[in-house]
Amino acid sequence: MNTMLLRKSVLGIAGLAFAGGLAAGPLHATAAHAETPVQGKPVAVAVVQGDKPDASKLIPHGAQGAQSHLTLDDEQTGNAKAIIAATKKAGLPERAAVISIATSLQESKLENLGHLGDANDHDSLGLFQQRPSSGWGTPEQITDPEYSTTAFLKGLKQVDGWQDMPLTQAAQTVQVSAYPDAYAQWEQQAADLVAQHWNS
Which domain of life is it from (predicted)? Predict the structure, then answer.
């Protein structure tokens, strides 16, 4: 099914999990700154060493395939920051946050989705479209950004060698999506968000 996600519209979210991927249970199936011209004159942008994560850690394999990009509202940006905070709290590196944000961009467009009635895919909920019936947690837990991120990261940590594999492979191993290659299209935006907010 190939449907478009219309933000905050129950009618436009039919088939979301098929467009965004089916979230099974936790592993049950298995910047550089350039000079900016201002009125024709280059203006140097000051960069403080250590302000942003090392780009090689964010996208070690390079972004795979054509990249998509969403203009995020305050709620979506807040959800990205919540994913970053949960990743840091779990003691995981920036790359884990990139994988998590890219997964959420694909699954829910970084929206913390509640139950959508007949438009819902099974019982998928939250930022990662996790399913209570598959062991991810209660509906209340899954719609808590910190809990859902921690649950995703717990699954990611069980993937042997996740740090060194392409994003889409790591995300797919946790999510078990019907569209496993779809995660890759969000890698650049996820890396940009991590670079922007990791130390903020």
Answer: Bacteria
107 dihedral zone (left: phi>0; alpha: psi -120 to 50; beta):
alpha
Give the strand pairing for 41-43 and 36-38.
antiparallel
pTM (2 d.p.) = 0.73
C-alpha to C-alpha distance for 15 and 1, rounded to whole angstroms: 7
pLDDT tens for each residue of 103-140: 999 999 999 988 655 555 568 899 999 998 889 999 99
Query: Distance from CA of residue 25 to its chain's centroid?
Result: 17
pLDDT in tens, 141-200: 999 999 999 999 999 999 999 999 999 999 999 998 888 889 999 999 999 999 999 998
Among 120, 126, 103, smallest CA distance to 176 is for: 103
Domains of the chain, residue spans: 71-200
